[in-house]
Amino acid sequence: MPDDPGPTSVILGKRAVAGSGGSDVDQFIGRVDLPNDADQYLDGTGAFSVPQDKDWDFDATNVWTGTGSGFPSGNVGIGVLGSATTAKLDVNGTAGSLFLTMGINVLSAASTAVSVGLQSFANGASSANYGARNEATASGASANFGTYGNACNATNNNYSIYGEGCSSSSTNYAGYFNGNVTVTGTFSNPSDENLKSNIQPISNAAAILDALNPVAYEFTQDISPLNLPEGNQYGLIAQQLGDVLPELVVQNVHPAKYDSLGNEISPSFEYLSVRYTDLIPILIAGYQQQNFTMDEQSGIIQDQLQQLGSQAEVIADLQTQVENLQQQMASMLTVVQAMQTKTNNCCNDGSTGSLPAPTGATDGVKLMQNVPNPFDTNTRIDFILPSDANAVLELSDAQGRPLRRLVDGQMNAGSQSIVLDGSSLAPGTYFYTVYANGEMITKKMVKR
User: Fold this and answer.
1) Residue of 395, 423, 425 whose CA lies nearest to 407
2) Which of 112, 50, 51, 42 is nearest to 78 (CA)?
3) What is the pLDDT of residues 326-348, one digit of tens each?
4) Is residue 76 within 8 Å of 12, Cβ to Cβ?
5) Whole-angstrom Cα distance, residue 92 to residue 212?
């Protein structure tokens, strides 16, 4: 095998040829040693010269034609076109002759319109197309970059790496990463209203969340082509999520891996993944629905508390009324007992302790209605005693509680008249009672 070319050399290609013992060895197809003069080019005789047009252009029989411009399919060209330094390497073939169809087009950074560091195209292959597949595997290196992009200083837009997946096949990836991915800047998804149609609210978010089954798990590490994270993980099982939200489950294809000659090293295989970011709107809608339900329940609870408060006030008022009635009944009982005592004692003769028998014909004690009634300040009370008697005339309030005695002592038979000075009495209802000869008569009066 020839020595490796130096830094001013270009390898035109390698191919595997049969070696001794049936093993294959790599052999250089050719090598070009470039001179230091960038204006020289290799002519058809193998010598370097400086023509007006400095393109390499080979026809189908690998003979340099010197046509000057353009890069026909199947040819290799390096040189200068106009004022912009360009280089082009096109390797074209069919699926039967070449496994992959690739293209590299490097345009000068001096271009005022567009500068492309590396532009690759892959199409027409029967198994897989890779726009770019780069590996950096140098052992002992402090850093390996399979692909490194840096775009800056453009007036409008800068794209360090741009990937685009077409929609003509079932599996399309603008980018596929087998391993960890870190983004130090913002990561966003298209959400412009102008890009959307059939916009509907999520009305059953709470039911959807109730149907999900989040789990803790660990990834199986013996699936060698996949660089899955180790340790505890938290998420959903795609098959279970597919029963609830099938649109959030994605069928993925891990690509096969090939060597430099197109031989398959590891086959492709399929697996399921979950669009976790699409769960965020459902979580938000579920949170809002839960808050709405809680607000409704809180309102119902507040209404019930107000009703309970009103009922408590009614109960307290009824209890107060009952207590007042109990007090009135106790007062009335006290009055009745007092009246009974007075009746029993009002007419004792003081010596025998017994009531004297009525003398002469009489109709009993009579009590007249006070005059005037209602009254403002004073009112007159008249009563008739059929015989001499120990009499009591008493004024009580509306609850039957005694206020004052107007008469208390021995009185002669006949008509009696008492003037009540009611100037100190509050407006309201009052009762006046006469006790005499074992009788008790009560009437009502009203103070205005």
Assistant:
1) 395
2) 42
3) 888 877 777 776 666 655 555 44
4) yes
5) 51
The Cα–Cα gap between 214 and 279 comes to: 12
Tell me the residue type at 214.
Answer: P
Rama region for 211: left / alpha / beta (φ>0; ψ in -120 to 50; rest): alpha
Backbone angles phi, psi at 58, to 5 degrees: -115, 140
- For residue 66, what are the contacts with CB-CB under 8 A and spacing of at least 6? 43, 44, 51, 53, 55, 57
- Give the separation between CA 348 and CA 354, rounded to whole angstroms: 5
Q: Which of 284, 273, 272, 277 is nearest to 209 (CA)?
A: 284
CA–CA separation, 361 vs 76, rounded Å? 160
Residue pLDDT, tens place only, 53-70:
434 444 444 444 444 444
- C-alpha dist (Å) from residue 85 to 43, 227, 261: 19, 41, 31
The confidence score (pLDDT) of residue 96 equals: 35
Question: Could you tell me which residues come within 8 angstroms of residue 338 by beta carbon, excluding any fewer than 6 positions away?
Answer: 402
SS (H, E, C) the chain: CCCCCCCCEEEEEEEEEECHHHCEEEEEEEEEECCCCCCCEECCCCCEECCCCECCCECCCCCECCCCCCCCCCCEEEEEECCEEEEEEEECCCCCCCCCCEEEEECCCCCCCCCCCCEEEECCCCCCCCCCCCCCCCCCCCCCCCCCCCCCCCCCCCCCCCCCCCCCCCCCCCCCCCCCCCCCCCCCCCCCHHHCCCCCCCCCHHHHHHHCCCEEECCCCCCCCCCCCCCCEEECCHHHHHHHCHHHEEEEEECCEECCCCCEEECCEEEEEECHHHHHHHHHHHHHHHHHHHHHHHHHHHHHHHHHHHHHHHHHHHHHHHHHHHHHHHHHHHHHHHHHHHHHHCCCCCCCCCCCCCCCCCCCCEECCCECCCECCEEEEEEEECCCEEEEEEEECCCCCEEEEEEEEEECCEEEEEEEECCCCCCEEEEEEEEECCEEEEEEEEEC
* 438 φ/ψ sector (left φ>0, alpha ψ -120 to 50, else beta): left
Cβ atoms 31, 5 nearer than 8 A: yes
Query: Rounded to an integer, what distance in angstroms lies between the CA atom of residue 433 and that of residue 335?
Result: 11
Task: Give the C-alpha separation, 76 to 32, whole Å.
Answer: 13
Global pTM exceeds 0.85: no
